[in-house]
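Section: Multi-chain targets

For targets with more than one molecule, the full set of components is provided together so that the structure can be written out for the assembly as a whole rather than chain by chain. Components appear in the order listed by the source. The example entry contains two components.
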Amino acid sequence: MQTQSRSVTLALLVIAGSLLGSLSTFVTAQSDAVRAIYVSAATVETNIPGVHTYAEAPKDFNPLMATDEELAMVTYVVGSCKPNFPPSSTFQHINDAVNATPAPNVVEVCPGTYPEVVGIYKPMTVEGVSASNADQAIITVPSGGLFTDAGDDRGDFLAAQIVVQNVTGEVNISNLTIDATGNNVTSTDTYIVGVFYQNSSGTVKDLTVQNQNGNGGSGVAIWAEGGSHKPLVTVEHNNLQDFDYAGIYAETNFSSSQLSVTLEGNDLATNFVFSQIPSGIDLGAGQTASVTGNLISGGFKGVLINGGKGTVSENTVVSAPVGVDIENNGVSVKSNTIYNAIGCGLFCNTGVGIGIYANSAAAAVTGNTVAQSGIGIYFNCAAGKNVHGNTILDATLGLFGVPSGTVSTNTYYNVGQINPSGTC
Amino acid sequence: MARIKSLLVLLALVAQASATVTYVVGSCKPTFPLSSTFQSISAALAATPAPNVVEVCPGTYPEQLVIDIPVTLEGISDGASAGATIAVPSGGLSRGQIDGFGNIVFAQVLVGIASGEVNLSNLTVDGTNNSVPQSDFVAGVFYLNSAGTMNHLTTQNQFGAHNGIGVWLEGGSAKPSVTLENSNLQGFDNTGIEAETNAQSSELTATIKGNYLTAYAALSGIQIGPGATASVSGNLMPGSFFGISIAKGSVSGNTIVGAALRGISTSGASVTLNTIYNSGNGRSTSAAVWVGSSLAAVTGNTITQAGTLGNAIDFDCTAGKNVHSNTILGAPNGLINVPGGVLATETYYNVGTISSASGCP
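Its structure, encoded as tokens over all components, is:
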């Protein structure tokens, strides 16, 4: 009780300092049992159920201007790293916390291992926190393995570790490791998915998502699907490892865009290579994408553009037999670096690696650097004058399959044949 | 009259000295004067007057080159190809050069003590079938106490018994400055870029920027040894055991993927704004960044996926407060061998153990 009165006193001091005569207004707004109190003093805990304090007030927080939603923050803790947190707001399982009543605004996950599957159906933030010299909350596969818990809008089955479904408002997930080792999914009809956003908005950042693999090429680290909410999903600064179908997959089964995705600053690597898969980033239909600053290593295709609209720019693709595969008209591909696109062996009909496969390029393909490839840019008798201004360094063939009459001006260094004739 | 004659002679000499002598190697410029056209690069370099520029047509040139004049040697495009390849002569490389440490280096292109700059561009140097003895080194290009710029080179297949070097830079009394940029070094089995001088103080300034290095199963991507100061920036490097090792200078904005043991090792150089990804897989002694100096600034780097057993930053019980503001995402261990009393402020995500001093006395 003593702690409680201290925190409230400190809160009131802060409020008094900034609001003076408006104190009664703020107190009225605090009438619900579940409130957050922002104080500038450090490390103050309270015993009020559902209430905790913050080390520092957010710089832009002004209680007078705050909305009811901002004032009514419900925070839960998962794990045992915050022993002073009220037991009624502390959970042992992430899924229990995210589905508790009242619904949380924030779920903080202590370092530890959580063998569970998580379903999120309300707006909230779920974040790993650090404690006792550790900063790793790991969601692992429950005993018995993963099971089908979602379906996409094409009728595919998904065994997803985190499902975010039809949420109005944002779901933000950060600083967690999601590991699908031992998923035990054997059916080739079921996708093994780390995080699945379905018709829901939010930001996914600072995650490690790994080992979504095992049934021969259906593992996806992060999957975003649009829908009637026309959601906005940001996927940034994540570490995605050893998927065997796609690192990030964005799509909607719809002819127009029902999803906006921003994929930025992610690092993706996989040791799997099958025929034509996996892709680092796979963009399907019904979405608009901004894909920038990602580092993609290994797999079969770095970026696969199968549909949608948007821009793929300033990404680095290393050691994928096909750096960027452009299969539809709507996405521009600019200023990317594609390195070491070699060695696809039997998996390519060309027999050699391809920097950019431009099977369609109504949008611009410009300013890219392709270093060390079998074929720098493969036009497949389809792409045209919108492909230009790229730099090709060290390729057996600079361009291939350029339609007759198409002039594509690029810069070449150490290229055996710049544009062999008769390839269409 | 005599004075006017002298003036005319002087003007003529100045005109001659300032005229650019350009030779062509190969047959891609049939309208070029025959007297200025050669079939080998060596013949063009040895011709009189000495060339300022040698343009090399697409083709394969099985030669071991020695360049001891200031010159620009550049591959050119004939419209159909932009590929001029310097290959190993039949029988292998025959001439070795001793470096400042007594090693024997068989260089495919030796730039040896030129009095001015030697610039190389748009050439492939292929070391296939080099036949260099296993006790010696093979190098694609070796700058010995010489200045210049290499741009858009490809060096490849410098294989030996783990003694293959893509580009080797060695300083000396001339204290040369050498730039290597926008080049692709692949298939070396020891080191992609080696820069060194056998001297206590720096006798070489190297600028290494915007290069690509594929170094699978090789020892080092870029190694800056004693007696050299280097600026290493914007390079993209998959593979190798050690990505970049350096004592003096700066390492910034590089992307290092999959270094098996250490991404960047510094014993004094600053290390800023680099991306080190997927380093040290399966090695408990690995480090994405190893810092063996209390003075080296190591800031603003992003370390992602520092191995399944590995470590993000190894302080070697030496580094201190100059290591800060790095971001570590996905590592069993964040900081190791941190000296007592050192408080390093980094940003951590998905890090098993944030900081450890267990290896320090």
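Chain B has one domain: 57-355.
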